[in-house]
Amino acid sequence: MKKIAVIVAGGTGSRMNNAIPKQFLLLKGKPVLYYTLNSFLHAYDDLQVILVLPEEHVAAGQEIIDAFFDYNRIQITVGGPTRFHSVQNGLKLINDESIIFVHDAVRCLVSIDLIQRCYDTAVELGSAIPVIDSRDSIRQVSELGNEALERSSIKQVQTPQTFHSKILLPAYQIDHKEKFTDEATVIEAFGLHVSLVPGEENNFKITRPIDLVIAEHLLSMN
Fold first, then answer.
1. What is the pLDDT of residues 111-120, one digit of tens each?
2. What pLDDT digit, counting tens, does each position of 127-166 carry?
């Protein structure tokens, strides 16, 4: 089965207090985006990448590709105003039947094992959404007040969210809605269920300065 990873790199450096977008910040001398691309390209020799970037950062993305990777395996396209539209733009480049990974560029510590487990599950069940247990107590707030939720039934969602193209491509033909925070919510709005797989604690998003420190430490341990 053909394998395609849509890597969405549309973030800014606002929460990092940095003018440089998060995906281009350096970890051990290499951009965050390098580690993400490297994991997917090493997971499967036949995997192709569609890298979705803001238009003003396409040149920076191309520089990373030219410096570290085989450009024949990576294609760049421009993102949209929301994550939904950015993913949609990436999917427009896919015509063949395939397994499609959609991944946040700033989840740079994603493991090859998780990528391969998501692939195997999507081949079997059509979808694979990595999740981890919530370690904190959870409360739901409403107009009537707030109440505790059973923590064991709450999962935190990660990427790569992985689907058979026959599921994902038609689903992204529907109109955008504010509730579409990830691919799973789009699939569910399309009337389908998703399958969950165990995610990884280290597969977190780089969003704050402390995350860079933690990621650098974890990379140093490998």
1. 999 999 999 9
2. 999 999 998 999 999 999 999 999 888 999 999 999 999 9
Domain 2-221, CATH homologous superfamily name and number: Spore Coat Polysaccharide Biosynthesis Protein SpsA; Chain A (3.90.550.10)
Answer for the pair 143, 210: CB distance below 8 angstroms, yes or no: no
The pTM of this model reads 0.94
Alpha-carbon separation of residue 29 from 58, 68, 71, 138 (angstroms): 20, 13, 21, 38
Number of DSSP helices (H) and strands (E) in the chain, helices first: 7, 12
Q: Can you spell out the DSSP letters for 87-138? A: HHHHHTT--S-EEEEEEETT-TT--HHHHHHHHHHHHHHSEEEEEEE--S-E
The residues, any chain, with a CB within 8 Å of residue 83's CB and separated by 6 or more, are 8, 10, 180, 181, 182
- 221: three-class secondary structure by DSSP: helix
The three-state secondary structure class of 175 is coil
**Number of alpha carbons in the 13 Å side-chain half-sphere of residue 162:** 27
